Each structure stands twice: as structure tokens, then as C-alpha cells.
Model the fold of this input.
Amino acid sequence: MSAEVLKYTLEQVESLELAPGAEHENLEGWVPTLASDADLREALEKALDYRGDVTFTLKSGEKIEAYIFNRHTSATLADSWVQYFAPTAPDKRKLSYAEIARIEFSGKDRAAGKHWEDWVKKYNEKKAAGETNIGLAPDALE
Amino acid sequence: MAIPISQVGTVATYVLKKKLTGVKRYPLVLMLEPLFRCSLACAGCGKVQYPPHILKKQLTPEECFAAVEECGAPMVSIPGGEPLLHPQIVEIVNGLIARKKYIYLCTNALELKKKLPEFTPSKYLTFSVHLDGQREHHDFSVCREGGYDIATEGIREAVRRGFRVTTNATFFDGADPSSIRAFFDEVMGMGVEGIILSPGYSYDKAPDQKHFMGRARVRRLFRAILSNRKPTWKFNMSPLFLEFLMGERNYECVPWGMPTYNIFGWQKPCYLLQEGYAETFKELLETTEWKDYGVASGNPKCANCMVSCGYETPAVVEGFTSLKGFIAMARGNFKRYPNANAMKLYNDAAPRPHAPLVQIAEPALEETHA
Done:
């Protein structure tokens, strides 16, 4: 079974030996083509899952840098919105889908390069080099 | 039994009151995440992978108190991030104690020893220290050599000062049952009140997406670990939930039982999935499509989940709302769960270092036929 399966039966679930994890796309730097409403909706779903900031260019020309953490979808773009934190403002803000002209996955993907295998490789290399107190440090808050 | 009578009584009264008043959906534990910053960078954790401006944000004490009061749960777990990095964590904890909430402050304990003088021991406050196993296993799991020694130093100092202390561990594929059992001996020897444990979950945001056990494997691992219990081991969890992990009971997911509140709002639908946020707890209850989650839903994101935030609430409710459940819960505190096959398994197994954690292609554990 793979993560592509839409729904499991109870029997499948109970006999599952290993759980398929999510497939993470490399989205950093991506600028999706927004030719249709469906394109926009799909891109915003990816932006919701993205662990970095995106930059919106609005139809008014204004640019907004944002970390998206929530969205509400309705039948029309005007009634659909994303909710975000901007790096420069303390409060949560909302933006209507209908205002968005362009999206760029502009911020660093904070989940990239932090796989278990990356840690094992780094650990083995440092151990082989005779290092002690080996560890990973959290990203700097810049 | 690891949990003090006063806490058991508070929870029992709360659950019975909900039953008598016909409330179907109610919270048991609020998962209050005051910040996402952490002093560790564990490879399996997806809770801390945010841009710096998000990591710098934190809930104010007032926001924490408002969430606690709105939710009404008798217990509050404070994970994160690392809560001890919050500059007002003492004020938050004291405010919750004043509200008579039973608090589990979940910490990696790197700062615990230093911060302890700022806290006052209370029956309402438990430090729940993240320890994923014996020294080598824990250090490798949290990606930091020396982490175990610092954490256990903090545990010993907290116990010495009269605080309630538990350990909490998450076990992933390849975990060594013999080592885990030796770990139980170690931590009980440090004087902790009890042990909290959990199977790893295929958290969508975790950088490591390959080491999650399915339910069949979870049951085998926990049957191996939790059979033939030593009388010295105490677990700060519902005995019926532990039987669920061992495959002796079945429950449906109750995600509203342990709701999560953080800087984004009330997380939909649970602590592990992140499918949007509600502004209020009421909105969370009313607008989440609960039928789309849990094993019974067939949702692949829920397929391997046997985690306490979904499955401990129904175990607690069963224990306090039916005579059969109450008797099973009481007996579970003292049962040893004898199992000859499990005994043979860990007696025969060669000690495993951390390396098998990355060898997922081979079965990590043989069937115990319990």
C-alpha cells in the first residue's frame, strides 16, 4: 500500500506493518502557473503545507510575505481566504483568494535536509573523524 | 498506581458529570503549545520546522488562561517547542495551578535543573521529561550526545526538590524491547512517579517520513515491552490504553478529547494533523468534520495512529463510566500480563544499538503470539 491510497479498509489498517509517510515536494523557489481557479486553489493547498514563507503579489500590485497556516475554501474565490502571519506584523491576517495574482514559494523550506538519514550520515562522519558531543542544533532565529 | 488519588478523583468526577449531563464531545486534556522554539533539533520532529518569525512568537499568559478556561479540560499538557524557553512559563504554570488544573509540563530537561528554583512543588504540577530510552538510544533519537545525562540530572534534582516527575518516550520502528525494559528500570530507579510512552506517528510535517510503524507492528512491540511487567514499573497512563497498545482492546479515535491550542489557534482536527485552525474551541467542535478522521474513517493520514491524543480519552471514559471498565482499569494497575513468548523474545534477542532504527526493510520484531 502506498500513500496514494485514498481510503483504507479497517482490515488493511489493522494489518499495516509500516506506515507510508508523506511525500514532500521540493517547492522552494517554485512559482506556480495560475491559469485557472483550480490552479490557484491547488497552489494554496501546497502553500498551507509548506514550511517556509511565500510571497503573494496581489492584483493591486502589492506584495505580501506570509507564513500560511490556515485556509477556508468556498464555492467562489471571493469567499475563500488564507490566514497568515507576516514577518513584520504581530497579528494574524486574512487574504481573499480573489486578490491573489501570483505566488512564489520564496522562503527557505525549514523541513528540507532534516531527514533521519541526513542525521545518521552526519553522525557517522563525525564519529569517524573522532569528534565528541555530536549533535544537531536548531536553526538560528536570524 | 502512578497517578495520585486526587487527580483520579478530579478526572472521574469530570467524566461522570459529562455523562450525566449528556455531553457527547468534551475535552479531557488541553494540549497547550505556548511556543514552537526548541533547544533540540530532533530528526523525527515536525513541530519545530518553522521560519524564524514564527519561532519567535509565543502565547501570552493571558492567552493561555483564556484557552484553558474556554476549553474546560481538567488536565493541561504543555508541550511545544520547549516550554522552558518561554520567558513567562512560570507565570503560566502558576496561573494554571491557581485554576486547579493538573499540568504536565513536557520538557527535554536541558534547562530543567537551572529553572527548578523558579517553580514551587504542587500536586497540580508534573514535569514530564522527554527520554526516548537508555543513554545511547535517547541521545541518538534527539540528535544530541550528552542529552540523556543532562535530562537525568534534571530529573534527579526535580525529584529531590519534591516535584512530581514522569518520563515520556516515543518509540519508532526498530526499537529494542530489552533495552526499553532496562530503561524502565533505570527511570523508576531515579524516583519518577511513572512512565508515559507512545508509538511514533507518521506526522505529516516530520522531516523523517520513513520510520513509522503500522498498527500491527505497534501492537507487537508494545506486547513485547509491556508483558511480564515488573512490580516496580508504574505508568502514568490509563491501564486500558496500555492494553489498547498491546492489542487487547480496541477503541475509536476521539480527537476532541485532547485538543491543541497554539499561536495559530485551535488546531484541526488534533495534535498531530494540521488541517487548519479555528478561532474558538466552540468553532473547533462545531466545524471540524470529525467523521473524516480516526482509523474507522479510512483516512490514510490516520492509518497507523494509536497515539494517546486520539485513543487514551476513550480508555479513560470507559474506565470511569462502566463497572466493567472500572474493574478492568483497577486490575490493570496491578496485573503483570504474563506472556512466555514475549519473555523468550527479549531474553533471546541480542542487544541492539541505535543502528536498526534505519533498517526498516526487515521485520524489527517477531510475533509474540500473545
